[in-house]
Amino acid sequence: MKKIIYKTIIALALPLWGLGGFTSCSEMDSDLVSFVEDNQLDTPNDTVYSLMGIVNKMQVIADRTVLLGELRGDLTSLTANAKLDLQDIANFTAGTDNPYNNARDYYAVIQNCNYFLHYADTMLTKRGVKVFEKEYAVVKAYRAWTYLQLAINYGSVPFFTEPLLTEKDAQPTKYEYYDVTQIANYFIKDLAPYVDTEYPDYGSIGTLNSRRFYIPVRVLLGDLCLWAGRYQESAQYYHDYLTKQGDVHPTGMGRVTWKDYEFQDIEDGYASQFLTQSTEILTIIPMEEEEYNGVVSYLRDVFNSTEDNNYFYQATHSPAYDELSRSQRFVLVYTDPVTQLPDTVSPLMVYPSESLKGDLRQQSIFTLRNEETKSNTLSSIRQTCYKYTSGHVNLYRLQHVYLRFAEALNRAGYPESAFAVLKHGLCKDFIDRYIPEKERKSAGSLLSFSEYTFPRENTQGTHSRGSGNANADTTYVIPALSTSADTIQYVEDKICDEMALETAAEGLRFYDLMRISLHRNDPTFLADKVARRKGSSNYDSALYSLLSDQKNWYLKLE
């Protein structure tokens, strides 16, 4: 560990670059920020230089944020063309020589954040406005998020919040090791004062709105509380983010569905939500477009057929994900063409192909095509994963928030409310109609959704994004169970499945399974899911045994 921290100090004693070719501001094209020489951040220009420098460090950990969370889960399979580094991640054999296992890169982000927070002149004002206040909140959020990533990937990590400037500072014996609960509890307190701090707006940088570079503090606080088991607080933070006056976030009606009762044509308003400019995307790590400008993302080459990989994609949907998608019941509400009776519910029984059975989101996101090629060095079978077409890395999108809100509501003791997120959506009409009065009263402000800003016309249950009209599915319900604990576990299983259907390939799955296992104090929950990733007929008992021991969830710390 000493080696990691010391190398971090050496790296950060060098000048901090901005975003290279990605940055279009002329003032930033050639200027450097040296933390060693510029010991005090006390000019307005320092805010842009130093913040972009931290984003630069975030770029380094962007791809692994997705790959470590996705390849170790149950929804993705690697092809025979996958690089050995990726195979080692998926097989839980990644050693300290694996390029995706490098805690030093996380500490580089943290060290930059610590430096900024220590040296920024927070009292500096210009025209009565504190110059650094907005950036200060952004950096606090970056640091908390990065420490959370360290904890969920390494289990327990050295914790410090002051910049390390000498070799003496880097002695590992000086610092306590914090696990995910300790880290979450520390940063809940650290971030809470900044929930209403407005973030900076540098306008467009390159082709992106700079405000999408930032992590919403309320969402991050919801995540931290969720990991810490503070479910009521978590639900409140998510709710308050979604319903903040002047900045509300209804679900929208994006979905993929059959056009009509003949079940031949699909209407897809789903895949476009993953484009960088979509309002569905809340936070991205902006990446360079060319290597000579800095750090680029290679996720497109992992999940897509590209010229760079000779069209041999490396990762695709797993048999476990296939089985889950096809086990869903698609329900279409339409007017029967013979009887002319309205609102006839038709579960789809005869499919054009087996792959189109059930939930349609996988079919929207993953497409295969054949291309004739005269060279055996080029693949003729080509995959596109529409979650990876932009070259930037998405950290947060709106449906992540809704699903974690459901998870927090359920664990807080409001399973009917949580299930409503999946089946109905949270508009006032649906809340009043489908959630029992006793639970509505108990949940209180957590179910406060304005009928004007969350209308039925712009609100749907997450399950309806791929399984038709979930409202009309009479089988998609909470059954009568013996205890409230049984009900909560049943709903949590449904939330876990919905997370898979909605967020597959986004790098969240292993962490979702980890968090739910920790909620239940049952490592076999995660172990069983991952052991089934090759399909129900190819259960991996050795992998189950390995992951039943929680210490094997984590990467080795150098």
Note down, in words, how this protein is organized.
The chain has 558 residues and is mainly alpha-helical. Helices cover 40% and strands 10% of the residues. A hairpin with a 2-residue loop joins strand 2 (125-126) and strand 3. Helix 1 packs across helix 5, helix 13 runs antiparallel to helix 14 and helix 13 (398-411) runs antiparallel to helix 17. Mean pLDDT is 89; it is low at 1-38.
Concise overview:
The chain has 558 residues and is mostly helical. Helix content is 40%, strand content 10%. The strands form eight sheets. A two-stranded antiparallel ribbon has the order 1-11. Strands 2-3 form a two-stranded antiparallel sheet. A two-stranded antiparallel ribbon has the order 4-5.
List descriptors.
single chain, 558 residues, mainly alpha, disordered N terminus
